[in-house]
Amino acid sequence: MKGRALGLALLLGWPVVGSAATGACAQGLLQRLGWRFETATIEAPSIHGGPVCTRASLQAAQQAGDLQVRWPASMTDDARQALLQRLLDDPATVCAYTFELGAAAQRAAQALQDNPGFRFSGLQLGWIGFGARGAPAQGWQNTRSFGRGYTPLAGNSRALDAFYTGSVRAECGVGRQVAQLATQRELYGDAAFDAEFAPAELSIGTLLGLHDTDSILLGAQAGEFFADGKAVRTAAMGRTAFLGVPGFIEHVGDVATLDDLSNQAENFIVVDVGADAAQALATHGGLGWYDQRNAEIWTLAQGIPRLGRRYFERLLYERDPGLRAQLQPRFQATLARMDQLLDDPFYQQFVIYVHPRGIRPIGYHIIRLLDRNPRTSFSIDLALHNLHTTLFRRWREAQLRHCAATGRPGSLTLDPN
Prior knowledge:
A hairpin with a 3-residue loop joins β11 (350-354) and β12 (358-361). With 417 residues, the protein is of the alpha+beta class. α6 (156-164) crosses α7, α7 (172-188) packs across α8 (190-196) and α13 packs antiparallel against α17 (362-372). The two termini are 24 Å apart. It is 46% helix and 14% strand. The strands form four sheets. The protein has a five-stranded antiparallel β-sheet, sandwiched between helices. The longest helix is centred in the first third of the chain and has 23 residues, at 91-113.
């Protein structure tokens, strides 16, 4: 009960007055996230968070002098605890957490990509298809008709194992939801993931349907959203602020311009962002600039006749030398300009997971859609998310509760193993 009360107090922002153990737990968590504390002969504490989200790694951030606290030897316990509580909400702490979050997103995406049984929509009885064995055999129970909504039936981790190792068919919107939930699983570890979230909070189904559930992604338990569709604020924060964030690639033209309805949009989570891609996004102020580049690429593609399946994918992504040699001289200047646009670090180093295409740079998807829906260009947006707000605070409070209950800081994964 003490652990629950502590977590509630911190979650609601109530002042926490109390034991040395409380301060030790907060300081232990901050240290595991990368903060370093030094007692010095100074009159007032000195805090330097630094631009942590721009760094390639936690080690690089620390080497650059980020995440440092110097406090006076004479500082009272109450003053130290108050400072620690402020640091738990510091932007640099959130950025330090994104290293853990990004690693979890990479593990989740890799596990989903590696499962050949997790396939795209096909012959199935509902929106999500669990095969002949049915949903209960794979750990899910139906909550909406026609397979449009499910919640875990007997353990959150076991339910997600259906997508890690089982046989399931679903479209890319469900794939994005599963990748988001799998990221939380990887972040917490199985035991804590099962204990910390109620089954209804892990609802999956149609994206619109999630709003009527207790979903931690888009429903009643989602809490505080971060809305940054064109990534203006995210790009200004730095590369790791993108990690694990959901988004979508969507057609610009109306429905009448679509030839392949199954590829009218691609839902994703961000898996990696290279340094040059992050710099390009910061320089251009987010994704809006790239929507213009997408439109130019699409316009240029209209001047080159498509021959055979996956023509532009082979020409522009695989850069098939034989196919390029066959291109008539009058198209070479157009091809060179398309290459120049697609060589931008954003297209090469902004790496996303899309079900069922797996983990690939975003340029692959922009090129692929030239083949699938050649009559419209596509735009890129980040979706509403709560990774740095509600979900960060829930993970943080779980860490503090674990420490308060056991008297041990533990690891950043709460699994006992």
